[in-house]
Amino acid sequence: IGAADRTDGCFGATEKQHVVLSCDREGAQGALTTVRSLILSSKDPCLLNVYMVTERKDTSFFKDACECIEGAPPHFCQTNFKVLLIPEGLYSPNHRSTIHYQRRKDLSSPLNYVRFYLHEVLPPYVTLVL
Q: Cα–Cα distance between 125 and 123 in angstroms, integer?
């Protein structure tokens, strides 16, 4: 999921690109590879803001893992990479009635539903979600 913060009124050189990924440790390799690809293919990685939405237990893991991304510009992880927490109470056990969880246990993770709560997770200056 991506979002854009247009600072010049159109898609131009000063446009901020906001990318949101929701991930836990199991999917970390793919998520961090995606971040690396975004950095390497961006004309100006300093205009790229990456938000990693995860559970509380994985926050320090992703902060440390960002430092290992090959090709990231200096200070990218301190200024352009933010680890955000899933809002408390996002997932209710009442959702279980709609999905047969013995077959689809992977759907029980709150990370699968974070896209519905981006307005609660993202900073207020991120106004457009693509």
A: 6
- Name residue 100's beta-bridge partners: none
Cα three-residue angle 87-93-99, rounded to 5 degrees: 110
The structure tokens listed for 60 are 């320090």
The 3-class SS string of the chain reads: CEEEECCCCCCCCCCEEEEEEECCHHHHHHHHHHHHHHHHHCCCHHHEEEEEEECHHHHHHHHHHHCCCCCCCCCHHHHCEEEEECCCCCCCHHHHHHCCCCCCHHHHCHHHHHHHHHHHHCCCCCCEEC
The model scores a pTM over 0.90: no
pLDDT in tens, 58-76: 989 999 999 999 889 989 9
Buried residues in 5-32 as b, exposed as e (16+ CB within 10 A): beeeeeeeeeebbbbbbbbbeeebeebb
What is the token pair recorded at 98?
């709609």
